[in-house]
Amino acid sequence: MRTHRQTTGQTDIQVDPSPAARRRRRRRRVLLAVGVCLVLCLGLSAGGAWYLNHKVTSQIERIPDVFTGLTHRPVKPPVGTAKKATNILVIGTDRRSEDKTTGEDATAPTWLPGAQRSDTLMLVHISGDRDNVTVVSIPRDSWVRVPGHGSAKINAGFSFGGPSLAIRTVEELTGVRIDHLAVVDWDGFKAMIDSLGPIEVTIEDTVHDSARDKTWTAGRHRLDGEAALQFVRQRYGLPGGDLDRVRRQQLVLRAILTKALAQDLWADPIGRYRVLDAVTSNLSLDDGWAIGQVRHLLRQISEVERDNFFFTTAPVRGAGRVGQQSVVFLDDVAGARLWRTVNEDRAPEWFAAHPETLLPHTPIR
C-alpha cells in the first residue's frame, strides 16, 4: 500500500490517502496524459497537413502575366449572379501525342512560337450562386478569327501568341470574359484516374484505331488511366473526326467527376491528397489565381449536385476543308445564343430549351 508521509515538527506520521483522493490523483494523471497526446497529435496533424498542402501546391507551375496587355475585353453583366460567376479557360495538352505541336513542344520550358498548339479547349463556367457548372468544349479545329493573324484553327492562337492570345481569341469568339487560366496535360487525368480507381464509359459503335491497331467494341468499358488516355487520344477511325474526339474527352471528364464525387474526397484527407498530387504535378495556373481561391472554389464545386454539371460542345455548322486543312465550321447564330446565356449566368435555360446538345444525349463513338 502506498502512503503519504506527512511531516510535523516532532515526528513523521504515515497517513494512508483516502480512496477518493487516490481516484482524483489517478484521474488527473490520465487527463494529463490524454492532454499531452492530444497536443502532440494536433501538432503532428497540423505539421503534416501543412507539409502535404505545401507539397501539392508547390507542384503547380505558374504562368505569368497572361492577362497583361489584353484590351477591349468583354464585361460581365453588373447585375444578378453573373457578376459573381467564374469563367475558366482550360487548355489541354498531350505531351505523349505523336503530334509534335501538342506533344513535347507544347510543354517545353520555353514557349516556341509556331510550335505549341493546344490539344483541348474548354470554357468552364461556375455560376455565381455556385449552383451549377457548365463545360463548353470548343473543337480545336474550329475555324475562327485569331486576332492579328486572320482566320485559322482556334488552337493556333496558343501557337502564335501563347496563353494571352489564346484567351483573347476565345473572348472575341464567345463574348465571355475569362477570369482564370488552367493548362493541364492529359497525363494528369491519367494519374487522377489511377488514384481514384477505374472509370466506366459506354461506347455506342465499334470503331478501330488504325494508329494503335486497337478496336473499341460497342458496349460498356472499364478503363484504367492508360486505357482512358488511349481512348481520348484516338484521332483516326472516328466517324465524326474532331467532334467525336471532343465527346470522348467530355465522357472521360464526366466519369472522373462522377467517381470523385462518389468518394467524397473532402471527408477523406488521404484520398484527397492522392488525387490532388496526381493533378497538380501536371497543372499550370495563371499567377493571379491564389491557392486559397482555388481551394475555396474546389470546395464549392464539390457541393454542386451531380445533375447540375452540364457538358456540351460549341454549336457546329459542319466540317470541311480550307486549303489542305481539315476544319470545323462553328454555327455563329446558335453559338451567339449559347454564349449569351453563359455570360448572363443563365446556362441551364439553354439546356432546358436544347437538351439534345447535352452530353448524355450525344452519341459517343
The CATH class of the largest domain, by name, is: Alpha Beta
- Our count of domains comes out at 2
Ranges with pLDDT <50 over ≥5 residues? 6-13, 39-52, 98-109, 361-365
What is the helical fraction, as a range of percent?
25-40%
The tally of strands reads: 17
Domain Cell envelope-related transcriptional attenuator: 117-260
Keywords: Membrane, Transmembrane, Transmembrane helix
Protein name: LCP family protein required for cell wall assembly
Biased composition (Polar residues): 1-13
Give the secondary structure arrangement, pairings included.
Elements lengths: L3 E4 L4 E4 L3 H40 L2 E3 L22 E8 L26 E7 L6 E5 L5 E4 L3 E4 L2 H19 L5 E6 H11 L2 E5 L3 E3 L4 E3 L2 E5 L1 H9 L8 H22 L5 H12 L2 E4 L4 H12 L6 E5 L2 E7 L2 E6 L1 H12 L3 H7 L12
Structure description:
By secondary structure, the chain is an alpha+beta fold. The protein folds into 2 domains: 1-6 and 17-58; 59-361, 3-Layer(aba) Sandwich (Aminopeptidase). The protein has 9 helices and 17 strands. The protein has a 7-stranded mixed sheet with strand order 3-14-9-4-5-6-15, sandwiched between helices. It has a two-stranded antiparallel ribbon with strand order 1-2. Strand 5 (120-126) and strand 6 (133-137) form a beta hairpin. Helix 3 runs antiparallel to helix 4 (225-233). The longest helix has 40 residues, at 19-58. The radius of gyration is 28 Å and the shape is globular. The model is unreliable at 6-13, 39-52, 98-109 and 361-365 (pLDDT under 50).
